[in-house]
Amino acid sequence: MGYKFKVMGWVSAGVLAGALATVSIQTIARGSLEPLPLEELQQLAAVFGIIKTEYVEPVDEKKLITDAISGMVSSLDPHSQYFDKKSYKEFREGTTGRFVGVGIEITQEDGLVKVVSPIEGSPADRAGLKTGDLITRIDGTAVKGLSLSDAVKRMRGQPNTQVTLTVFRKDENRSFTVTITREEIKAQSVKARVVEPGYGWVRVSQFQDQTAEDFARKLEELYRQDPRLKGLVLDLRNDPGGLLDAAIAISAAFLPENAVVVSTNGQLPESRAVFKASPEFYARRGPDPLRVLSANTRAALRTVPLIVLVNEGSASASEIVAGALQDHKRAVIMGSQTFGKGSVQTVRPLGPDTAIKLTTARYYTPSGRTIQAKGIVPDVMVDETPEGNLFAALRLREADLEKHLSTTNGTENPDPAVEREREAAREAARKKLEEEAKKPAAERKIPEFGSPQDFQLQQALHKLKGLPVVTSKTQTERTEEAQPAK
């Protein structure tokens, strides 16, 4: 019996080796890489066979192969990833800004789900949910104890299905239930308003399919409200990035036509490119998303005094925008040094429902600076509160991630003293955060972005008005520490 299982295992291993050999042939056909080494392929096939035949319990062959692929890809860097059917669907939803749910932006407060705002026209909006509402139960399940992602999963689902929410409304001191029918939701990644007479605020929370068009529409509305805007604040704080086309389009709204926005460089010829502020570089999949801007608004955007707010959470596409506007001296960058994700990921489908996201190039600003593991250093460093950057120590940057692409030779270990100092700062910040969480929302030190209590926004407005700015006394430019050799 044992011999029979062993034969079956090696047959399976032979099939795997054959499949890998096919991949190698396809790789040669692409004309970009050398064939995979046969000795290592044989080892992989041998390990597959041993696990299949000798592991204590039967193992699913497909899972073994997908786990091998996942491990192979994830070992490269923090941003390369294998997508199975579920994760690929979620990834595509994230880039399109469309998903099926009730249509609310949420956060967590005291273990409950708090409504930040209902998306205009969504099922939640029509059902009467308001900013500040606390969701205590989802389909009868208590929210307390659930993670925010678990709560989101319970509220999402298939179109035309229903979810029942139990809601506590503080200002009315009452609880009620509401049953909402799920629909496809288009998330809003752009907010804009006149924050003071003559001064506008535009926030981009993520770069998605519709972001550039939504951005143009919001800007047009802003200039309709106040045609003589004296200054504009572009808020990219905590914007994790997204689609390159959207970043180029938003940069193009403020730059002269054909100004260089970003360049990329990688192993494949197609990964070596220069992208400019012109529709041919950002409107390749459809009409120009900036077409809704009137001629007057377009002209105004090229000259209006501009501040860009960034922080440690500003990454990738948001760093491209900040870097382009900084290099062309089109804007003053304020806030904290950005995340430092200066790498390009390309999605390669493996079939109708699976894919790999692979790092294929590095980004460079118009002046040739690399963003990778360094980020954009603001022209004016400003803390998030008058008391300083209270919780910045808790925020990881690209240089903190294991296996990140390095801009150094990576042959030295990080300084242990620096690591100890950083861990002590993180522990102090954790304690402060716990204390803050116990306070009522109105008394917490870090208010909502765009609110009158937003310290960094107020400093940006001061800069636009020519008033004194309270700059950071503690922030310094952070360079990449060398990593251990891989």
From TrEMBL:
Protease as UniProt keyword: yes
Keyword annotations: Hydrolase, Protease, Serine protease
Database matches in Pfam families: CtpB_N-like (PF22694), PDZ_2 (PF13180), Peptidase_S41 (PF03572)
Location of region: Disordered: 425-486
Skewed-composition ranges (Basic and acidic residues): 425-447, 475-486
GO cellular component, one term: outer membrane-bounded periplasmic space
Matches recorded under CDD domains: cpPDZ_CPP-like, Peptidase_S41_CPP
InterPro entries: ClpP/crotonase-like_dom_sf (IPR029045), CtpA/B_N (IPR055210), PDZ (IPR001478), PDZ_sf (IPR036034), Peptidase_S41A (IPR004447), Tail-specific_protease (IPR005151)
Domain annotation PDZ: ranges: 88-156
Gene3D superfamilies per UniProt: 2-enoyl-CoA Hydratase, Chain A, domain 1, 2.30.42.10, 3.30.750.44
Entry keyword Repeat: no
GO molecular function annotations of the record: endopeptidase activity; serine-type peptidase activity
Record-linked NCBIfam families: prc (TIGR00225)
Family: Belongs to the peptidase S41A family.
Protein name: S41A family C-terminal processing peptidase-3
Organism from which the protein derives: Tibeticola sediminis
